[in-house]
Structure to design on (390 residues):
C-alpha cells in the first residue's frame, strides 16, 4: 500500500488511488482527501474535485443505519460523516462530485432505494425518475453479447436474491419488493387496498 | 404480511393513510396467510416487472447500438463545451480501452464531463453541488473495469482525482495491476495511479 504522501500526490495531480474496502484503508483515504483538499485550495483557490468508484458496490451496504465501523469509514470518505469525534466543533466535510457504483447485479440500485433519504423522497410523492440517483442517464449497462443481455425484467424473485446477497434475508427482500409496491400504491391507492 | 410491511416501511401514520379508503385489517389463519403470501408474491413479481419496465426501456441509450439494435439512434443533448471536452477525451482513448468497452463510451464520458461542469458552475455561485450517483452494471467478465479506466483518463483531462474502492487487499492489487497493464498502458493516467 502506498504511503499517505504518495496517495496525496496522486490526489493533487488528478491521478487515482485504488484501495481495499477495509475500515482502516477507507479512514486513511478520507484523511488524505481532507488534507489534499486543504492544500489544493491553498494553492489554486478552487475546490478540490474527486470521484469515488465503488467496485462490487453491494458489499459496502451492510446495515440500514450504517453502524458498522467499516460503513462509517465509507461514510467519512463520502463526506457524510465527520472525520473526528470532536464535540462542539463543526468539521468541514469534503464530498466527492460523484459516486459511481459498479456491480454485476442491480442490487445497489435497489439498496439505494431502500435507504432512508431516497425512500422518504419516494414516499413523499417524488416519481422514481425525479430522484437524482435514478435518472436513467446515470445508469449504464455493459453487455458483450446482446443475446445474454439481462434487463431488470430478468430479475429473479426475492427468495433468490437472498441466496445471491447473503446479507439480505427473505424479509428484507420482501421489504424491497414492497417498497416498490408502496410506490405503486401511492400512485393508485385503490389497487393497493385490494390485496 | 403486506400490512405489516407497509407499517414497517412507512411508519404508522403513512401506512394508515394508505389503508384509508381500502380494506380493514382482517385477521387470517396461518394457512390462509401462507397462501395469500404466495399469491401476493407472484402478484408483486408481475407488478415489479411492470413498474420497472420503464427503466428497462430507459437503459437503452446507455447501451451501445451495436449491442441493442432495437434502440433508436437518438443523440444525447449536451452543451457545446461538454461536447468539446468529451471529444477531447474520446480522442485520447487507445485501442486497448475502446476494444474492451461494451457500452456507450461517449455517453459515459459525456456524463462525467457534465458532472464536472455542474460542480464548477455550483462552485462559482458559492453553492455546494449535490453528489451525483451513477450506477454501472453488467455481467461478470464483460468489461466493467473499463468504467474505471475511463474515469481515470477523464480525471486527468478534466482535473479531478479518482478513488477506487474494491474488495479485499488482493483484489486491490489485482485491479491496480490489471488497470495499469491492460487499460492504462501508454497513457499519462498510469503515471499517477497508485494502490
Amino acid at each position: 500500500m502506498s504511503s499517505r504522501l504518495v496517495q496525496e500526490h496522486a490526489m493533487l495531480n488528478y491521478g487515482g488511488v485504488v484501495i481495499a474496502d477495509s475500515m482502516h484503508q477507507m479512514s486513511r483515504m478520507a484523511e488524505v482527501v481532507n488534507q489534499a483538499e486543504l492544500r489544493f485550495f491553498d494553492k489554486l483557490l478552487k475546490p478540490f474535485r474527486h470521484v469515488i468508484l465503488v467496485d462490487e458496490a453491494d458489499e459496502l451496504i451492510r446495515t440500514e443505519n450504517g453502524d458498522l465501523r467499516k460503513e462509517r469509514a465509507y461514510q467519512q470518505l463520502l463526506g457524510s460523516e465527520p472525520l473526528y469525534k470532536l464535540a462542539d466543533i463543526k468539521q468541514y466535510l469534503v464530498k466527492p462530485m460523484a459516486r459511481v457504483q459498479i456491480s454485476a447485479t442491480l442490487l445497489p440500485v435497489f439498496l439505494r432505494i431502500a435507504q432512508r433519504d431516497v425512500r422518504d423522497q419516494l414516499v413523499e410523492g417524488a416519481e422514481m425518475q425525479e430522484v437524482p440517483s435514478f435518472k436513467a442517464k446515470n445508469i449504464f449497462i455493459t453487455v458483450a453479447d446482446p443475446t445474454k443481455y439481462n434487463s431488470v425484467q430478468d430479475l429473479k424473485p426475492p427468495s433468490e436474491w437472498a441466496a445471491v446477497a447473503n446479507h439480505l434475508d427473505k424479509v428484507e427482500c420482501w421489504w424491497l419488493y414492497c417498497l416498490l409496491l408502496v410506490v405503486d400504491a401511492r400512485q393508485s391507492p385503490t389497487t393497493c387496498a385490494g390485496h | 404480511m403486506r400490512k405489516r410491511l407497509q407499517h414497517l416501511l412507512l411508519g404508522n401514520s403513512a401506512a394508515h393513510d394508505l389503508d384509508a379508503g381500502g380494506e380493514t385489517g382482517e385477521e387470517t389463519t396461518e394457512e390462509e396467510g401462507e397462501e395469500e403470501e404466495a399469491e401476493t408474491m407472484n402478484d408483486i413479481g408481475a407488478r415489479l416487472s411492470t413498474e420497472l419496465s420503464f427503466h428497462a426501456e430507459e437503459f437503452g441509450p446507455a447501451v451501445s447500438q451495436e449491442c441493442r439494435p432495437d434502440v433508436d439512434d437518438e443523440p444525447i443533448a449536451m452543451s457545446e463545451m461538454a461536447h468539446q471536452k468529451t471529444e477531447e477525451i474520446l480522442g485520447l482513448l487507445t485501442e486497448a480501452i475502446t476494444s474492451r468497452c461494451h457500452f456507450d463510451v461517449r455517453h459515459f464520458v459525456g456524463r462525467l464531463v457534465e458532472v464536472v461542469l455542474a460542480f464548477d458552475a455550483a462552485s462559482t455561485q458559492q453553492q455546494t453541488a449535490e453528489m451525483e450517483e451513477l450506477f454501472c452494471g453488467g455481467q461478470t467478465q464483460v468489461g466493467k473495469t473499463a468504467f474505471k479506466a475511463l474515469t481515470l483518463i477523464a480525471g486527468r483531462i478534466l482535473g479531478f482525482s479518482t478513488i477506487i474502492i474494491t474488495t479485499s487487499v488482493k483484489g486491490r492489487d489485482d485491479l491496480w495491476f490489471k488497470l495499469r497493464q491492460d487499460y492504462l498502458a501508454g497513457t499519462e493516467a498510469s503515471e499517477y495511479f497508485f494502490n
